[in-house]
Structures are given as structure tokens and as C-alpha cells.
């Protein structure tokens, strides 16, 4: 299997795959593939996986920087969800998908993550204790309308506290992600500080 791994932000300049088939060009159909999770995919992947490893993606960081007008908010009261924004690094979880499950799992991920164009799918190096693996990573698309740039602390906190969408309160989404990270031994101090400022001490 030969999948190019873009360096830094250079991958964002490339044309975004228009379909799962285009994303899987170069896959031989027999290798297992990896998917990197940094938000709700950690605690609610929604797909079968063969192996799970802690992993780090370099050049991007987890950020509560995308408006959600449906799943975690509404058009009148949008919530916020996580994206991988430029700079730093991100500790998360890499899931290994069995080759026989790849078509169905990737199709489901496409429907879940690519509806609004808020994410750009890329194959990146995911660094694990065992060895680096190449994984599918959904990066923030800063050009999308949902990008929540330069929010004030007050507005961010208010949105998380008050927004509710089809999938439940934004507050639950943030808290569950923080809990899942801690359960895996991942220390995200920014997210931990946000939870404390929301008046919810991590437990």
C-alpha cells in the first residue's frame, strides 16, 4: 500500500477527495487501515475495530473551533465541536480497521464527517509506541463556514453551556470527550481547564 503523507499544512493545499473511492485510491484491498480519533470518535466510534492504540499527530492540535447547528446546537443557538487546527500536536487514539470492514466503515465515516465540508480528510503519520502508522485524519477546513475563529472566552463558554442539538447538549459532548481522554491517560490541559471553567471538576 502506498499512501502519501503530507508534511505539515501542505496537504491542505491539495484537492480534497470527492468520494470514499477517491480517498482509497492506492489501497490494495487487503491491508488493514487506521483512523485517528481526537474527539467523539474516541468514545463513540460507531464502527468495528481490530486494535486501538494511543497515537500522536504532529502539526495540528485539538480545538473547539467548529460551529454545530445540528448535532450539538441549533441554527438559533449553535454549539461547538472539535477540529484539528494548525500548529502543535494532538494526542488521540488510532483505530485499526480490518480490511474486510474498510469499505463500510469508511463510507459511514464519510457520511458522519463530510456532510458540511468542515473537515478535510488526509492520510497522516500517527505516531504510536509500537511504530508509526498511516491513518485517516479529519483536519479542520478553515475555509468552511462553520469555522469559529477568535471566539471570546465568554462566548465559547456560553455556547458550550447552553447549546443543544439532535445528538444532545454541547456540554455533554465536551465533558464526554474530556473524560475519554483521561480514561486513556491523555492529558489535554486546555480541555481540562475548559471543563473546570464550566464549573465541572474532572472526576
Automatic annotation (TrEMBL):
It holds the Pfam family ChaC. The keyword Oxidoreductase does not apply. CDD domains: GGCT_like. It is an enzyme of class 4 (lyase). SUPFAM superfamilies: Gamma-glutamyl cyclotransferase-like. InterPro entries: ChaC, GGCT-like, GGCT-like_sf. This is glutathione-specific gamma-glutamylcyclotransferase. It comes from Achromobacter insuavis.
